[in-house]
Amino acid sequence: MSTQDETQAINTLIDEYGKALNTADSQSIIDLYSDEGLFFPNHYRTINKHHLISKSGTFLKNNHFSIVFEIKDVVANGEFAFVQSTSTTTVRNLEEEKGVTKTSRDLFVLRKEQNLWKIYRYIFNDMHK
Q1: Are strands 116-127 and 33-40 parallel, antiparallel or unpaired?
Q2: Which of 8, 42, 57, 84 could lock onto 26 through a cystine, CB 3.0 to 4.6 A?
Q3: Under CATH, which number does the domain 3-127 receive?
Q4: What pLDDT, in 10s, does the model give residues 94-124?
Q5: Global pTM value
Q6: Is the pLDDT of residue 12 over 80?
Q7: Neighbouring-strand partners of residue 70
């Protein structure tokens, strides 16, 4: 694949991740992670792919999630890629009907598996305005 094709495939993966979060599609979220994928949520412990299966379903069932990623930089080299982005996220608890909007810095480490990019590591931290 050319560098442009790799970058497009990576952008598509991040876009699919955002869509899966926004539509509460927990199975698609899981499918976008590599088998050794880890999620480092802000203020919580690290979650591996297998725990993500139960955690994402419960979280998404109890909350309406809206996220938009703005990709700032993509570096692909061999089987790994690094994506720096910012995101604006609104989470609305369905029981309380209140929402919280945050902006964060995001870092994705991707790994190519069977010629497809997968999320290998994802970490974010909230930015204060």
Answers
A1: parallel
A2: 57
A3: 3.10.450.50
A4: 777 778 899 999 999 999 999 999 999 999 9
A5: 0.91
A6: yes
A7: 86
